């Protein structure tokens, strides 16, 4: 059953033009993804840095829904391809559009699909409760890991890709999801109280 996304419900409650709010939300999530990329921590065991981008992608998908979540990440990638400094700063990873040929390309290209999946689940009410938000975000994270590892496996092989692109990040990402999964259920509760 299709339910309204948080951004749609916010527009209806606040009597804001839906198209304008949706466009602004897409740009906002794209900008947040770019901002999260700037918090980049290189790891000694892999060329893939630790960033907060996946959490922004997943929470953005929960808030925006499938289509708009996907759009936000397409805008983000388009900005990077255009040469804007939106990708993680790195002394070793290629800059600008060449980043989509480097070791992190699989993760970056996964973002629209992860946001689409998480948003699809949000449209079915997964963003209303904590445990279902966790489940939706984990599903999106699997997409990010799968695409990232698949890309890395071309040069590192399957085991090397898992060792460099998945295993070092699992514990931190699970903790981040545990923290971030409460955002949308909390916002829904606030929205419900504000409308009373």
Topology (SSEs and partners):
Elements: H1 6-14, H2 18-37, H3 53-64, H4 66-81, H5 105-122, H6 130-165, H7 170-180, H8 183-194
Helix pairs in contact: 1-2, 1-8, 2-3, 2-4, 3-4, 3-5, 3-6, 4-5, 5-6, 6-7
What does the model show?
This protein is mainly alpha-helical and 196 residues long. It has a single domain, classed as Orthogonal Bundle (Arp2/3 complex 21 kDa subunit ARPC3), CATH 1.10.1760. It is built from 8 helices and no strands. The radius of gyration is 17 Å and the shape is globular. The protein starts with 5 loop residues before the first helix and ends with a helix. 42% of the residues are buried. The model has no long low-confidence stretch (mean pLDDT 90).
Largest sheet: none
Order of helices and strands: HHHHHHHH
**β-strand amount:** under 5%
Based on the structure given, which CATH architecture is correct? Orthogonal Bundle
State the helical fraction.
55-70%
> From the helix content, strand content and strand pairing, which structural class follows?
mainly alpha
CATH third-tier fold name: Arp2/3 complex 21 kDa subunit ARPC3
How would you describe the shape?
globular
Poorly predicted regions: none
């Amino acid at each position: 059953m299709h339910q309204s996304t948080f951004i749609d419900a916010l527009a209806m409650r606040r009597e804001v033009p839906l198209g304008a709010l949706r466009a602004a939300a897409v740009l906002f999530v794209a900008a947040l993804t770019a901002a999260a990329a700037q918090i980049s921590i290189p790891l000694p065991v892999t060329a893939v840095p630790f960033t907060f981008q996946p959490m922004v992608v997943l929470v953005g998908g929960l808030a925006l829904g499938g289509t708009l979540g996907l759009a936000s990440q397409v805008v983000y990638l388009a900005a990077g391809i255009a040469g804007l400094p939106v990708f993680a700063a790195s002394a070793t990873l290629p800059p600008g559009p060449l980043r989509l040929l480097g070791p992190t390309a699989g993760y970056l290209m996964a973002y629209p699909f992860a946001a689409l999946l998480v948003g699809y689940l949000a449209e079915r009410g997964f963003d209303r409760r904590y445990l279902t938000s966790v489940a939706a975000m984990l599903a999106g994270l699997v997409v990010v890991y799968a695409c990232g590892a698949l890309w890395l496996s071309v040069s590192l092989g399957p085991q090397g890709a898992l060792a460099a692109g998945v295993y070092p990040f699992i514990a931190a990402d699970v903790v981040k999801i545990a923290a971030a999964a409460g955002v949308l259920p909390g916002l829904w509760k606030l929205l419900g109280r504000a409308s009373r």
